[in-house]
Amino acid sequence: MEFLVEKIGMSRTIAKPSIPVTLLKVKSAKICEIIENGKALIAYPQGKGINKSILGQQKKYNLGKEYNKFATLEVNNAEVGDLDLSALENAKRVKVSFNTKGRGFSGVMKRWNFQGGPGAHGSRFHRAPGSIGNREWPGRVQPGKKMSGHYGNEKVTVQNEIVSFDKEHNVLVLKGSVPGFNGAFGKIKVIK
Questions:
Q1: Cα–Cα distance between 10 and 7 in angstroms, integer?
Q2: In angstroms, how far is CA 155 from the centroid of its own chain?
Q3: Could you tell me the pLDDT band of residue 37, with boundaries at 50, 70 and 90?
Q4: What is the pTM of this model?
């Protein structure tokens, strides 16, 4: 069973000992079409983006105007309709997949935790990567060399324990943290 979720943020439990928790809002979704192997095409609301292809899908599956995004998920449902959330009530653990926070173009000290040089006394080597070359052979920079570049915004999957699930508001409480910023959209998969 897979579900689309939105990260609300982090909090902590009031019990002793207090544990850090992450709150995830399970997105309301409608199953449009059942595909083989337990997969289904689902529609869910996100933003206001709409075009002719989305209008065609909404007309084909008799959806409201708010359902403007589509995805393929593993589901328990055997027929078209609302997504069945009963699997979250008895689940113990989930796999959570989000994109990490994007940090743009970053230097080697931030991206790879390089030490850098002395801060003063005319060293002229503060936050730079230093020498990157080899000798005459191979005479090139090896692939995978740790250098400056794009940092973050990559898909990361972690496993978390479920603390509780609020059926009324569709809020899932997970022990520990998950990647991504508050308001990010991701996917969870129930581990049997």
A1: 9
A2: 6
A3: confident
A4: 0.85
